[in-house]
Amino acid sequence: xxxxxxxxxxxxxxxxxxLEAAIRIGLLFLLASWCFLLMQPFIPLLAWxxxxxxxxxxxxxxLTIALNGRAGLSATLITLFFLSLLxxxxxxxxxxxxxxxxxxxxxxxxxxxxVPAPPGKVLSWPVIGNKLHEIWSLAADNLQAVLxxxxxxxxxxxxxxxxxxxxxxxxxLKFCLSLIIAGVVMYKAEAGKLFVDRxxxxxxxxxxxxxxxxxxDTVRSVALGVVGVAIIQSLLAGMGLFVASIPAAGLWAxxxxxxxxxxxxxxxxxxxxxxxxxxxxxxxxxxxxxxWCVIVGLLDNVLKPMLFGRGVxxxxxxxxxxxxxxxxxxxxxxxxxxAVVLSLGYKLFLIWLDIEST
Length: 358
Fold this sequence. Notes:
Layout: H1 8-39, H2 43-66, H3 71-110, H4 129-141, H5 143-149, H6 151-187, H7 189-203, H8 208-243, H9 249-261, H10 267-280, H11 283-298, H12 300-307, H13 316-330, H14 334-353
Helix pairs in contact: 2-3, 2-6, 2-8, 3-6, 4-5, 7-8, 8-9, 8-11, 8-12, 8-14, 10-11, 13-14
């Protein structure tokens, strides 16, 4: 719109048009902000669901062909498979922890809980050996006195354990919902692709298909880097624990897999196992197990740069920087979002510099 050259009536109409446009823009901004606030609690679930769906879609496509085009059945089977992988070990672990806690409570209440005397080699442990041997010996002689002496610390530990278990349970619930969303997204893949194509076409223009492909391939590349490394670490950890005859080696390997997927250092699980190994194994064997676990725990630092960026035109360093920066900024989902955003930004930057290869 353009302001008339003369006349107060024309200027008044021009001002009214500006005011009306400002009000409309303000209302649109208010509506968009309100919609964002309403959707904000669901954004992490939707983001995870989309990431999982994009990463698993090749499997879904092959299974759909094997099932004579029944995409709904394929998406349902894949969703149930991943839910069972997640929930069955969680229920087994929860049942074991509950039974152990009930047994411990009953023994403490009845005064029947006994602590064996510490082995003499505890004294040889560096830094903590003498203090641990003293407390352990006191617990073996008079457990009630130890419980009274360390009651404040036990309460703090109990609250921390309760908070941690509740947090893990809530995270498990959210991840299950994300898997269900992923199943729906896979089932509606064609409609989703059409929506993304139209969105990128409106935002980018004629080259939108290239950027859709970059986003898709980047998500799959990061998923390969995260899940692939997690599987390798869990298999190697399980092999080492099995050879060392550590009890429940399969369960420890599964915990390593979970921690590696959610980007928590797997040494948090493996180091307590190594400490336990020094109590049941010869020093040489326990040291070998510890060295193996340290190698497994640090292996992701070598493998991730190798796997990130496979099959994507974007340089591996750009994807790796985006994934790490995104995780530092917004948590584990930032691994995928950060990699996609930085990859798209890198591509647009090349176009702006007019140095992209044709």
